[in-house]
Amino acid sequence: TRRYMGRLFGLAPEDVPVEWSPDTFGHAATVPTYLVQGGIRFVYMHRPGAHGPHGASTPRAFWWVGPDGSRVLVRNDMALGYNGVIGPQMVPRSLVAFARESGLKFSLFVYGVGDHGGGPTRRDLASLLDMAQWPIYPTLVFGTARQFFERLEAEGGRLPVLEGELNFEFTGCYTTQALIKTANRFAEKR
What we know:
Blueprint: H1 2-9, E1 18-21, H2 31-37, E2 42-45, E3 61-65, E4 71-76, H3 90-102, H4 122-131, H5 145-155, E5 161-163, H6 178-189
Parallel strand pairs: 1-2, 2-4, 3-5
Antiparallel strand pairs: 3-4
C-alpha cells in the first residue's frame, strides 16, 4: 500500500501516520506491529469492543502494544460513533466525557453525512463557526485527525496501555468468530 501511495500520490509513510478504521470488526494482537512497520503511529477506531483484552472497559484513548513491543496511539470512538452533528450537545457528550476519563482538556469529534464521518454539511460548518464565538463556551476549532493525535501523543503520557486482541465480541455481529463460520459452513452443506 505504501509503495502504491508513493507512486500514485508521492506520499512517504510519514505523510500518512493515521490508520482510519472506524467500522472494522476484530483486531488481532499483531495489528500494532504491522501498522508501525508501515509508518502508522495513530489509529482511529469505532469498534475496539466494549471490553479490553483483560475484561475492563476499553478506554476512549489508549496505547495499543503488539507482542513485539510496537505501539500505536488509539482513539476509541465507540461511545459516540462517527456521524456526529455539530451542536451544543457535542460538548458534554464528547469533550466532557473524554476529559473525565483521560484528564485531557480537548477531544476529537467526528462529524459529517455519509458513512464513517463523511462530508460536512453547511449546517455543521455554520454551527461550529457560530458556537466558536460564544463567550462562555469551550474553544471549538476545525482540525485534522493528525493534529488531534499529535496533541494526544504530546499530552497523553498517562493514557492506559492495552495489549492483545481487540473486539473479540460485539453483540449481534459474530462474523469474525471461527466457531460461527464453521457452523455456517456446516449449515450450508446440509
